[in-house]
Sequence to fold (154 residues):
Amino acid sequence: MSRAFVKEADETVEELPERPISPHPNFVTAEGLALIEATLARLQQEHATAQAARDRAALARLARDLRYWTSRRATAQVIAPPANPTEVQFGSTVTILRDDGRRQTYRIVGEDEADPSRGTISYVSPVARALTGKKPGDVVRAGASDAEVIEIRL
Fold:
C-alpha cells in the first residue's frame, strides 16, 4: 500500500531549547512589569487554545515561553523612576549628541522591555553603561564615536 494513504499516527514534536535567562538582575520599569504580565496572560490564553486543539507543536513552544516569562515575572525587580534626574540612571530618558551631529534619545529600561527601534535600551547595553552616572555636558564613548549628554528627563 502506498504511504500516501497511511496516516502517520506518531507525530513527533521537535524538542525546543530553553530560552536563555540573563545572568543580570531583572530590573524593570513599572511599564516593563505590565508588559511581562500581559505577555504571560496572552501566553496562558494561547496555551489553553492549543490544548483544546491538541496542537503538540504549539504546546511545546508555549510551555517553553511560559516557563521563561514566569521566571522573569518571579525575578522582576521594579525600579522606581529617578526622583531628580540630574544624572543618567535606570528609567532616565537621555538625549545625546553624537560627533556626526545626530541627536538620539533613549530611555534606559530592563532587558526584556528594551527595543532600540522604539527608543528604549537595556541597562546592560554598552551605550547605557557608558551613560549611567553621567550629567549634561559629559562626553562618553557611545559605540564607535563620542557623544555628549544633552538632556536627562523622566
The longest helix spans residues 30-53. Residues 5 and 11 are 16 Å apart (CA to CA). DSSP finds three helices and seven strands in the chain.
